[in-house]
C-alpha cells in the first residue's frame, strides 16, 4: 500500500462513523488515528516525499475540527509544516505514492508547496529527516570508525595488558552502538530490499558480526608458538564468558563462530593444551555453546519466515493483517530491548583501536 493510500484509509476511518456503535467508540478511534498520524510524521517524514501525500494531509487538517484533541492536532500541524523531505529513503524497497481516485481525489493536485497555518500555542521541534547530510546518514549504516594503531606490539603482549573484562566491555560498547542505530523499518528494509541496494543498519550489524568472528580466529592462528596460540585461545574463551555476563549475546555468538571456525578446529594440540590447563573454562564454554545453539538471528529468522510463508493479501483480495501484526510484534520485541537501560561502559580508545586495527582478518574463504 502506497503512503497516500494508507493516509487516505486513515482519513476515511476518522471521518466516517459506524452508526451502530456508540459515539464514545468513534471518539476513541479518532484519537487513536490522530496518534498514528502523529507518530508516522515524526518517525517517517520521508513517506511524505510525494506532493500528493502532503496535500492530502493538508486538506484533512484544513477541514477537520479537533477541539477534543487539540494537543494531538497541533502536534500534527507542527510536524506537517516542515520543509518537504529531500528524498524518499525507502524508494528502493517501498511502494511509491501513486495518483488515484479515492476517498480524497488526488488527480487534481498541482505541484506546489504545502502551506499550513502554524499553531501559535505550541510547536514541536523535530529534526527533519532531510536535515541529515550525507556524512550523518552514512554513520547510521556503518560500523563505528576508529583510528589505527601503528607500530603495534605482538598480540600476546597486547592481550596480556588488557583485562578480559575490559575487552568484553568494549566489544559490548561497539555492539550497542550498532544495535541502537537500528530503526523499526530497517528490519523490513533488510528483508525486502535488493541485495544490490545500499547498506542498512541491519547489514552493518551483520558485517560487524562477521568481522569479530574473523578477528577472533585470526588472532589465534597468527601465533607461531603453541604456547602463544594456547594463551590467545584461552583468552578468547574467557571473552565469551564475560560477554554472557554482560548479556551481549550477539558478540558472544560472533566469538563462538570464530573459535569454532574451520581454521581453529584443526588446532587440536592447542585446544588439548588449554583443556589440560583450564578444564573448568573449557567446560563453561561448552555450556555456553549449548545454551546459544538455538539463539542465532531469532528475530530476523522470524521476519523472513513470516514474510515468505504468508501472502500480503487473502484469497478474497483483502489485506492479510494478521501477517503484519505478527511482524510488528517481532520488531517490537527488539525495540523494547533498545529502550532498556544499559550498564554504563566507559570508552577505551586503545582497546577499540586494537579491535578495529587487524590488517589481516580471516574470512570463510581463507
From TrEMBL:
PROSITE patterns documented for this protein: RASGEF_CAT, RASGEF_NTER
Gene Ontology annotations for the cellular component aspect, listed alphabetically: plasma membrane
Molecular function GO labels: guanyl-nucleotide exchange factor activity
Span of domain Ras-GEF: 163-366
InterPro entries (UniProt xref): Ras-like_GEF, Ras-like_Gua-exchang_fac_N, Ras_GEF_dom_sf, RASGEF_cat_dom, RASGEF_cat_dom_sf
GO BP field: Ras protein signal transduction
Top-level taxon of origin: Eukaryota
Keywords: Guanine-nucleotide releasing factor
Family annotation (Pfam families): RasGEF (PF00617)
Residue ranges constituting the N-terminal Ras-GEF domain according to the UniProt record: 1-84
Protein name: Ras-GEF domain-containing protein
Species, as recorded: Rhizopus delemar (strain RA 99-880 / ATCC MYA-4621 / FGSC 9543 / NRRL 43880) (Mucormycosis agent)
Amino acid at each position: 500500500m502506497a503512503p497516500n493510500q494508507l493516509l487516505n484509509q486513515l482519513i476515511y476511518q476518522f471521518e466516517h462513523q459506524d452508526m451502530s456503535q456508540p459515539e464514545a467508540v468513534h471518539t476513541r478511534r479518532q484519537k487513536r488515528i490522530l496518534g498514528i498520524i502523529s507518530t508516522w510524521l515524526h518517525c517517517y517524514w520521508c513517506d511524505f516525499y510525494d506532493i500528493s501525500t502532503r496535500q492530502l494531509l493538508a486538506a484533512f487538517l484544513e477541514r477537520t475540527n479537533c477541539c477534543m484533541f487539540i494537543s494531538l492536532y497541533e502536534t500534527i500541524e507542527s510536524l506537517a509544516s516542515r520543509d518537504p523531505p529531500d528524498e524518499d529513503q525507502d524508494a528502493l524497497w517501498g511502494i511509491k505514492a501513486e495518483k488515484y481516485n479515492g476517498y480524497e481525489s488526488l488527480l487534481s493536485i498541482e505541484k506546489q508547496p504545502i502551506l499550513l497555518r502554524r499553531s501559535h500555542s505550541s510547536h514541536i521541534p523535530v529534526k527533519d529527516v532531510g536535515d541529515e547530510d550525507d556524512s550523518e546518514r552514512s554513520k547510521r549504516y556503518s560500523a563505528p570508525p576508529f583510528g589505527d594503531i601503528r607500530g603495534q606490539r605482538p598480540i600476546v603482549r597486547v592481550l596480556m595488558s588488557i583485562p578480559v573484562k575490559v575487552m568484553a566491555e568494549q566489544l559490548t560498547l561497539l555492539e550497542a552502538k550498532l544495535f541502537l542505530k537500528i530503526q523499526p523499518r530497517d528490519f523490513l528494509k533488510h528483508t525486502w530490499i535488493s541485495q544490490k541496494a545500499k547498506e542498512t543498519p541491519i547489514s552493518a550489524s551483520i558485517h560487524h558480526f562477521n568481522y569479530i568472528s574473523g578477528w577472533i580466529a585470526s588472532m589465534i592462528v597468527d601465533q607461531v608458538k603453541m604456547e602463544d596460540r594456547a594463551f590467545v585461545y584461552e583468552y578468547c574463551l574467557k571473552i565469551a564468558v564475560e560477554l554472557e555476563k554482560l548479556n551481549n549475546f550477539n558478540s558472544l555468538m560472533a566469538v563462538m563462530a570464530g573459535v569454532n571456525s574451520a581454521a581453529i578446529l584443526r588446532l587440536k594440540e592447542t585446544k588439548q593444551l588449554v583443556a589440560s590447563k583450564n578444564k573448568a573454562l573449557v567446560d563453561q564454554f561448552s555450556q555456553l555453546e549449548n545454551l546459544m545453539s538455538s539463539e542465532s538471528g531469532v528475530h530476523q529468522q522470524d521476519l523472513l519466515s513470516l514474510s515468505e510463508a504468508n501472502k500480503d493479501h487473502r484469497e478474497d483480495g483483502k489485506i492479510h493483517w494478521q501477517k503484519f501484526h505478527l511482524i510488528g510484534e517481532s520488531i517490537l520485541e527488539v525495540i523494547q530491548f533498545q529502550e532498556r537501560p544499559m550498564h554504563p561502559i566507559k570508552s577505551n580508545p586503545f582497546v577499540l583501536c586494537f579491535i578495529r586495527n587487524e590488517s589481516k582478518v580471516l574470512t570463510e574463504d581463507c
